[in-house]
Amino acid sequence: MAASSARPWIPLLLFVSCCLFLAMTVSGANNKLPQPANSGKKFGKRSQDQSCLDEKTNHTKCTATCPTRCPNSCLVICPYCQTLCPCDIPGAICGDPRFTGGDGNVFYFHGKKDQDFCVVSDPDVHINAHFIGKRNPSMNRDFTWVQALGILFGDKRLYIGVQKTMIWNDESEHLIITFNGVPVDIPAVRNAKWVPTSVPALSIKRTSNTNGVTMELRGVLTIRAHAVPITEEDSKIHNYGVTDDDSLAHLDLSFKFHSLSDDVHGVLGQTYRPDYVNKLDMTKRMPIMGGGPSYLSSGIFSTDCAVSRFHGKPDLMMVTGTDEY
Description:
The protein has helices at 10-30, 232-238, 292-295, 316-320; strands spanning 31-32, 49-53, 60-65, 75-77, 82-84, 92-94, 98-100, 106-108, 115-121, 125-135, 142-153, 156-162, 175-179, 182-183, 193-194, 202-206, 212-217, 221-228, 250-257, 296-297. The chain contains 4 helices and 20 strands. 38% of the residues are buried. It is mainly beta. The radius of gyration is 19 Å and the shape is globular. The longest helix is centred in the N-terminal third of the chain and has 21 residues, at 10-30. The strands form 4 sheets. Strands 8-7-6-19-18-17-16-15 form an 8-stranded antiparallel β-sheet, with no helix packed on it.
């Protein structure tokens, strides 16, 4: 099935995704997001409402509740207060890894627990995902989730991950972020922002007081990362078998790319190629992408996967945020 023959709602979904990322950009100015309640339990209720403010009166114009499929995090389009799940837009990686490709088609890539796989590889940027997992005795594979990203651009290394957590608490910080091996400290306040002096084109901004950030490398990509646990409901429905020693905290991710080459590769990256042909059986309930060995990397910051395109040469615009020499 070729990308050009995707389902008829795909063009609309692609248009909506552009609107959503625009909404993400301006949300700090126009939206008020009450923080999730502190459950103090491993399986906490994490529902939240989102509001749109009238810029002229600074009063709430409308309020919408996140959809039941994503009660802990959703995107809002103002001024209409329409909400959608971040995991439903092109460029998303969520749950037991469910990918929404650049062509709008949904597929699964299970990888293997405790290993790293290149999800995007291009001459200027390379992204690996570290998978955690849990073995289900009744299946011949692991349940897996993305626990961390290793992002390389030029000679820089950015790590965004979730620490292993027994008892989940929404008000506690579970994200771990480092830049070139140095911990990144961002105040625990929504919209707080961090920009390294050495790379002014890079910024990380909190989307909530804890456990949610948007990372932007100007002109290259934007990543929305949200740390979440496996809920009791999900564990029962999917038979994940979550135990008291690990809530299987992981990342739900949304990617927006601004300057990929036509030769981009990786589990997700290849779906943005102009010549990409989707060979998966999209009539199945869970289309699964194979070829794991082609995407396997030897480490979170390794670029040795078989489909690697990364050259690793520093780019002046990436470092300075300008094209002036």
